[in-house]
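Why do we bother with a discrete structure alphabet at all? Because it lets us treat a fold like text: something you can write down, compare, and reason about line by line. To make this less abstract, here is a complete entry for DoxX-like family protein. Read it the way you would read a sentence in a foreign language you are learning: slowly, and without expecting to understand everything at once.
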Amino acid sequence: MIEAFKHMPLLLKLITGHAAICILFLLKATIPGFMGDFSYRGQVMGYQEIWGNDLGVWLILIGAFFPIAGLLLVLRWKYSRQYYSLVLLCVFIIPTTSKGDFVYLPLALFVPSLIIAYLFKSKKVREYYGT
């Protein structure tokens, strides 16, 4: 698995690393006091504030699905890029639309679209996955 990671294109390594680091969100939402407090929209939040502001479920979902996507990218699973794309779109779009912030929807679609285009259009990534 380490050899596969070494042979990845640089940007794909960053995407995979980001996905793996997202496990910290899962730990932050489930373990009180884990890594202290953090700031969200200018508000300092600890464990109680996370759950009081309905962020706990989102952090658990991000912390559960992104690391799996990162692992699948490294393992070169046949549908890993599709799975990562689905998780990425869900993380960006569902919170935006569930809060009714449709003004931000173009940005919520733009950023994942760039990453997805890279995953499927980059020559280096296609060579890495053998497609």
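What the structure line is telling us, in plain words: DSSP finds eight helices and two strands in the chain. Strands lie at 38-40, 43-45.
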